[in-house]
Amino acid sequence: MFRHSIAAVTLWLASPATASYAFYVGKNLTSDGSVLVGGTGEEVSSHWLQLFPAKDHPPNATISVGVTEAASFPGELIQIPQANHTFRYLSMEYSDYEGFPAPLTNGGLNEKGVTVRDVWADNRQELLDMTPNPQHGLQYSDLARIVMERATTARHGVEIIGDLIAKYGESTYGGNSHLIADKNEGWVVWEMAGGAKIWAAQRLGPNDIKVLYPGYIEDFPTNFTGHPDFMGSSNIVSFAIEQGWWNETSGKPFNIFNVYGPQDPRYKARDGGYKFMSQAALEDATREMVPVTEEKLIQRVRDHRIADDEAGYGQVVSLRADIDPDMLRIWIAPTGSVSAPFVPWWLGVQSIPPEFGEHRYLTTGASSSFLNPDYELQEASIFAGRVFKRVLYYMCSDPNKYMPTVTEMLTSFESQSRDQVSGWVEKAAQALIDAGDRNATQNLLTYYSHSRASAALELGHTLNSALDGYIKLTGQWRSPIGNQINDSGEGNETVNCLVGYDPDQPKDRQ
Ligand SMILES: *[C@@H]1O[C@H](CO)[C@@H](O)[C@H](O)[C@H]1NC(C)=O
Ligand SMILES: *[C@@H]1O[C@H](CO)[C@@H](O)[C@H](O)[C@H]1NC(C)=O
Ligand SMILES: *[C@@H]1O[C@H](CO)[C@@H](O)[C@H](O)[C@H]1NC(C)=O
Ligand SMILES: *[C@@H]1O[C@H](CO)[C@@H](O)[C@H](O)[C@H]1NC(C)=O
Ligand SMILES: *[C@@H]1O[C@H](CO)[C@@H](O)[C@H](O)[C@H]1NC(C)=O
Ligand SMILES: *[C@@H]1O[C@H](CO)[C@@H](O)[C@H](O)[C@H]1NC(C)=O
Ligand SMILES: *[C@@H]1O[C@H](CO)[C@@H](O)[C@H](O)[C@H]1NC(C)=O
Ligand SMILES: *[C@@H]1O[C@H](CO)[C@@H](O)[C@H](O)[C@H]1NC(C)=O
């Protein structure tokens, strides 16, 4: 199932050490008419699941946004007004990216059925060089979080981002994009580095499949005022003309990637040359799966050519009309889904088990400070992220041997969850809603998600015990040869389940 005859791409260009990817599948291409969104965040940091209840805020409440002098492109935090009400949402949080202030998010799902994913999208060097020092304005995580807190539709999310950038600016790490979706459509928003408040957005419709890896937008109308499928900053065209990057007389279409993307001939809008699959190859592989289901999108997100040690979690959500907010469901794997099972969480869930909450493993500052006693029991609990990282490291030590079995166990676990979810959990929850018992609905959903999370953890322990025992008993244990526990930095191979650089060849351990 994993084998597609796509040539291995081994170019690593000026890519950030971490990246992320997002999938969008339009509602005419899915089996039940849902919009489907999946992806991951690629950050070294630990990731943990967090619930954010809806909240009212006092009239003059503010929030702190932006980056500090510790960021790769230094800046200063600013205060901006908080909304008077923020929506309930679920997010995988993390603590560390390019010196940005914790906690951070790439997005998640809110009670209005709006989902957000954040994906890097490099800009041309001139824009990076133009970025003011210090820079001011909202960074990618602020924007993702505010969209979840305030957006009632995907389009609304884009408008919110546009308004906030116009008012306060954007703090960059070199260019970034967001995928925002609701039950009808998706939008790609590309926020440009350079401090000139430039952004562009393109609508994704019912017949579109889009993979951001990195984010991209191609042909764009120069007059998009009132256009249903495009939005952008008012200077998106004029700035390009001023810089001499594009003009009307050149006869070339106004193409956002060509004008604002990296000016490297090896790097094309739909083929960034990152890792082993281009956006185009991933889009084609997804299109081959039409009609797409959650199960199939999970298979895409889990693909070992893109899901590796860098993938901080896996996320798949389907959005359709007429869902009670409590019944909005998102499937989340607690670390890279190549080695971790997806567990269903609903917005009606009232708490997260401690095992899936924040722990110190790979969390910023952990190695230079003792534990805050307030967290002693939290830290005493097992950390799901660590459990499934262990599965990854055992499994990828000999992927030909272990991966098929582990994958089959993960997918069998998920099939069982899916059968239960559609067989009785959601029917029972809906019946309780219809009977007017909101509290029992939420208790049921909480109970099921916790039970499934606990069973997932047991599966992780079982896999680790079996792999550890097998590897040691059969003489496969290898101690490290070097003395450097970290990878050697940007651009180097991380732990993955690829077999050499070509997924079809035996793994080259040189
Ligand atoms: C849905 O897709 C089919 C082809 O797969 C196409 O014929 C049809 O027009 C599409 N419907 C809409 C509403 O776009
Ligand atoms: C909110 O700010 C306004 C203007 O800055 C001020 O007049 C008002 O007293 C503040 N209200 C509260 C509740 O702090
Ligand atoms: C909160 O904001 C909404 C939308 O902007 C507005 O309709 C409402 O009156 C505000 N409520 C308060 C208490 O300020
Ligand atoms: C640009 O768009 C506006 C609003 O849709 C429209 O009124 C105008 O005619 C368009 N201009 C051109 C040159 O197409
Ligand atoms: C317009 O663009 C073309 C090709 O990109 C370039 O050769 C030409 O000098 C530009 N014209 C102006 C007026 O900038
Ligand atoms: C809701 O359920 C919780 C947990 O069972 C219970 O403690 C609480 O009393 C219930 N609240 C109401 C209003 O029924
Ligand atoms: C590993 O990375 C951290 C953070 O960059 C650094 O402080 C530490 O010195 C590195 N350790 C090794 C062994 O390279
Ligand atoms: C990858 O790591 C090796 C040492 O293990 C180093 O020689 C090489 O320069 C690194 N490559 C990149 C692109 O950082």
From TrEMBL:
Name under which the protein is recorded: Dipeptidase B
Family annotation (PANTHER family): LD30995P (PTHR12994:SF17), SECERNIN (PTHR12994)
Annotated region described as Disordered, given as residue ranges: 483-510
Record carries keyword Signal: yes
One BP term from GO: proteolysis
Residues making up the signal peptide according to the UniProt record: 1-22
Feature: compositional bias, Polar residues: 483-495
Keywords, in A-Z order: Signal
GO molecular function term, any single one: cysteine-type exopeptidase activity
Protein family membership: Belongs to the peptidase C69 family. Secernin subfamily.
Domain of life: Eukaryota
